[in-house]
Amino acid sequence: MNKFFxxxxxxxxxxxxxxxxxxxxxxxxxxxxxxxxAKIPTTYSPEKIQAIQAFAAPVxxxxxxxxxxxxxxxxxxxxxxxxxxxxxxxxxRRDIRYLAEELLPKDQKQAxxxxxxxxxxxxxxxxxxxxxxxxxxxxxxxxxINDFDAFLDLIPxxxxxx
Length: 162
Description:
single chain; mainly alpha; Four Helix Bundle (Hemerythrin (Met), subunit A); 2 domains; 6 helices; 0% strand; elongated
């Protein structure tokens, strides 16, 4: 009789050690078969466009200040060129990153690439200003404007739902 209890006790211990493994497998299976998967949006809702417009406002204001940067470069006012880049345009990187994150997934990659190119252009304008290199500053300014405008072209306007 003692042998019977030992054998039953050993079987129970083996079952207890397998129980967590079985429960983990069942839980994994249930989670993987769970509810509907999230769909990636393909159009902008009016609410999303409104939110994007709020993020776009400081970026568009920074774009308007680019003509000021151009005038400083043309006047070879290198101190003000650097001051504008580091001052009023200093938060542009953050603002553009927030704005790019709000775009549809199909536009995010291109927006992030254009933003990176814009920031490289601004950094090179700053480097050219420190070196007092007019030709390089003008060239990089043109690139920055092209990148900035291409980025802004990705931003949906109110009334647009593409």
